[in-house]
Amino acid sequence: MGQPGLSLAGLWLSRAMSRCILEPRPPGKRWLVVGLGNPGMPSTRHSVGMAVLGQLARRLGVAESWARDRRCAADLALASLGDAQLVLLRPRRLMNVNGRSVARAAELFGLTAEEVYLVHDELDKPLGKLALKLGGSARGHNGVRSCISCLNSNAMPRLRVGIGRPTHPDEVQAHVLGRFSPAEQELLPPLLERAADLLLDHIRERSQGPSLGP
């Protein structure tokens, strides 16, 4: 079942996207922020990037503005941050191929890889730890690998959200695809707040800077 008001939001978003794509924009004033995850599995560790994006949408007052865009197979919401515009994106493709959605959205909005933020889970950091990484390899993350392949670049800034690594290698897949435990869920609200703060502060700083570089 679709989200309430999704059709009206979709109509508004389609018109807004048309204006965004056609109108000239100041360089460096538009950013694509992507929450990586698996559609239909919003409460799992692997989809914590989508949870961060949900918190970001609430902070920016666009939590009710998500709309499906079939051109990039994703849910989108547009938000303002000072003079900058943020395009929030939740791919509707599976993690291993969600780079197609990201690359298509970047193309539609005329954005380079440096203007695309990826938010994703990180096995090698404990739950509660955040790190902003400026480009580089996928470090074994299939969603990031797909984005690098489809964008033909590894320059995207990434917010890595720690989910912890289980003791035994055989448990990694079940851990990643599993839901947060009750104890972990208590840690999530402040973690999502800090993640949103880190993203917004970094985007504000770059929006005010003289260039698009990190």
UniProtKB/TrEMBL annotation:
Source organism, top-level taxon: Eukaryota
Alphabetized UniProt keyword annotations: Hydrolase, RNA-binding, tRNA-binding
EC assignment: 3.1.1.29
Family matches, as PROSITE patterns: PEPT_TRNA_HYDROL_2 (PS01196)
UniProt keyword Ribosomal protein, yes or no: no
CDD domains: PTH (cd00462)
A GO molecular-function annotation: peptidyl-tRNA hydrolase activity
InterPro entries: Pept_tRNA_hydro (IPR001328), Pept_tRNA_hydro_CS (IPR018171), Pept_tRNA_hydro_sf (IPR036416)
Reaction(s) catalysed by this chain's protein: an N-acyl-L-alpha-aminoacyl-tRNA + H2O = an N-acyl-L-amino acid + a tRNA + H(+)
Entry-linked PANTHER family: PEPTIDYL-TRNA HYDROLASE (PTHR17224:SF1)
Homology family: Belongs to the PTH family.
Function: Peptidyl-tRNA hydrolase that cleaves nascent chains-tRNAs that are not stably fixed in the P-site of 60S ribosome-nascent chain complexes. Acts downstream of the ribosome-associated quality control (RQC) pathway to release non-ubiquitinated nascent chains from 60S and 80S ribosome-nascent chain complexes. Does not act on ubiquitinated nascent chains, which are cleaved by ANKZF1 for degradation.
The protein's name in its UniProt record: peptidyl-tRNA hydrolase
Organism: Camelus bactrianus (Bactrian camel)
Name of encoding gene: PTRH1
